[in-house]
Amino acid sequence: MAVRIDHGTASGTFSLDGETHEVENNLWVVGDDAECVVVDAPHDVDAILALVGDRTVKAILCTHAHDDHVRVAPALRQRVTAPILLHPDERPLWELTHGGDHGELWDVDLADGQSVVVAGTTLRVLHTPGHAPGAVCFHAEDLGCVFTGDTLFAGGPGATGRSYSDRDELVASIRERLLPLPADTVVHTGHGPDTTLGAERDQLG
Ligand SMILES: [Zn+2]
Description:
With about 200 residues, this protein is of the alpha/beta class. The chain has helices spanning about 45-50, 65-70, 75-80, 90-100, 165-180, 195-205; strands at about 5-15, 20-30, 35-40, 55-60, 85, 110, 115-120, 120-125, 135-140, 145-150, 150-155, 155, 185-190, 195. Zinc ion (ZN) binds near residues 66, 131 and 150.
């Protein structure tokens, strides 16, 4: 069965360092007619489930743990009975959203180089710290695309002005881990339109 990528958007808020902003996030679901994985869990469980349909969700893959990407991850996990996967370096950010006395954790640690297989397609985990310490990208070589979360957008690197971010580290991650991939690799971002690695390479100089 053919693997496809389903896309939607959901709106809500992003809060960090005492500030709250309205944001619109991309929703990404990768799979075939039988099974899929969800990339990030922004704002709206029902919007994500509308993309999933009646398929089995094998995993909820988190690019990083800013609250606009993981706030509804535990609620989604309850609805679909799938594990949440997150890089362990995201624990401080995860706990800002899901910590406390009745805090919930994710289920499986992501590691650099790990493969997640769905519908016969491999998503390879690239640890790309900078926007957040445990930020990862998911490279689907077969599909010619990479899911970058907030590490790389159309127009350049993600934000690094807040806590737990580091601009030099982010640019190094993009140069060392993303730009060596084929230039025509489509970049599916956490916010806003797609781009390609070639276009961003040219802009980054
Ligand atoms: Zn973020």
